[in-house]
Design goal:
7-stranded parallel β-sheet, globular, 3-stranded mixed β-sheet, Rossmann fold, binds uridine-diphosphate-N-acetylglucosamine
Length: about 350
């Protein structure tokens, strides 16, 4: 199958592209490289032996998108491209609404024009806001708490309207919990720009010594140790779910929504201890007040994805953190250090 991957040079996009190529799909990537570089594509080639076809540009660029659909026999789209920082979205909501929503509209219009109706959309557990009790089920009420989360929710609603009007659409809305880890090879991983805002990239940099200590945001939540609990999922497991979703929507036209998590939660203090074990380093930390907008606990009920997609997260927390640490050790500057200086594995198991 020929698959268009928007945002394929990003963290989850790159891991998904590796799996798609390994499953013998043809991948075409569009990415504006606003938060990435060409380097992940070279790394994808080092892992799979194949360089995905790549177009640099915005998904809102209707002409470019049309050109891609004209040139390639696209059969399905996985839509990752979008801005994803909660803090940035609060500071500049219009940029977030414009970028995330406009690109999805142009994408869907172009897909429809070229009779492509199979779409996997990268959504987020952020759509549940602080409404949900745990474990979180797909049919629980949604209520995002940031402009970023609201863009995800709005896009989900747009896709619902689209499907209600035209039953040719077959759509999977995938609600990710907390993706972490990296490909086993250490060649691709999460490369935050500037100071990391998410827990595991921050832990990695503290363990490296490039950041002094971790600020634990709140120890007065209603959880056993008082710190926040999240459902961390290995990015390679997540990538696998995309590939299974593509297969599923091809055989089951409709609008589908799946939580992607492990179904287990871990607290911030548990994560510190587990990261110390994985890295062999001591992680200094101090307790700080709660971070605005954070919730106490969030973990998925992932039974629907198991029943319908035949998918289940397989990798343990230790594997997630060992892989995150390997990526960090091999790429202290992220993708800034070109592959040339790194040992290139011929082909690694994912
Ligand atoms: C965040 C986003 C979410 C996004 C997800 C992507 C917010 C409010 N939510 O989720 O929309 O989809 O990232 O992975 O930003 N923590 C610390 N110290 C730190 C960083 C985090 O104690 O320096 C704690 C947080 O308070 C939280 C847990 O670690 O309890 C996980 O935080 P994080 O990795 O930022 O993810 P989320 O906040 O769950």
């Amino acid at each position: 199958m020929t698959i268009l991957v928007t945002g394929g040079a990003g963290y989850i996009g790159a891991h998904t592209t590796v799996q798609l190529i390994e499953q013998n799909h043809d991948v075409v990537i569009i990415d504006n490289l606003s938060h990435s570089t060409i380097e992940p594509l070279r790394r994808i080639e080092a892992i799979t032996g194949e360089m995905p076809r790549f177009y640099q540009g915005n998904v809102q660029d209707r002409q470019l998108l049309q050109l891609i659909f004209q040139r390639h026999n696209i059969e399905a789209v996985i839509h990752f491209a979008g801005s994803k920082s909660v803090g940035e979205s609060v500071a500049d909501p219009l940029a977030y609404y414009h970028n995330n929503i406009a690109s999805t509209l142009v994408l869907c219009q172009t897909m429809s024009r070229f009779n492509v109706f199979n779409l996997v959309f990268s959504s987020s557990a952020a759509v549940y806001g602080n409404n949900a009790s745990v474990p979180v089920l797909e049919n629980m009420p949604t209520q995002a708490t940031s402009p970023y989360g609201r863009t995800k929710l709005m896009i989900e609603q747009i896709l619902e309207d689209l499907h209600a009007t035209d039953s040719r659409w077959s759509i999977a809305r995938l609600r990710y919990f907390n993706p972490i880890g990296a490909h086993y090879s250490g060649l691709i991983g999460e490369d935050p720009q500037g100071l990391p805002s998410n827990l595991v990239p921050y832990l990695s940099q503290v363990a490296m010594g490039s950041l002094e200590q971790l600020a634990v945001f709140g120890d007065d939540y209603d959880t056993p140790d008082g710190t926040g609990i999240r459902d961390f999922i290995h990015v390679v497991d997540l990538a696998d779910a995309h590939q299974k979703s593509l297969h599923f929507i091809a055989g089951h036209p409709g609008l589908h929504t799946f939580n992607l998590g492990t179904g287990r939660g871990h607290s911030v203090l548990e994560m510190i201890a587990a990261f110390e074990l994985a890295s062999g380093k001591t992680i200094p930390y101090t307790i700080h007040p709660r971070r605005e907008g954070d919730i106490g606990k969030s973990w998925a009920c992932a039974e629907l994805a198991k029943a319908k997609l035949g998918w289940q997260a397989k990798r343990t927390l230790q594997q997630m953190l060992q892989d995150a640490w390997r990526w960090q050790l091999q790429n202290p500057e992220g993708y800034e250090q070109p592959l040339l200086n790194q040992p290139i594995p011929l082909r690694m198991a994912s």
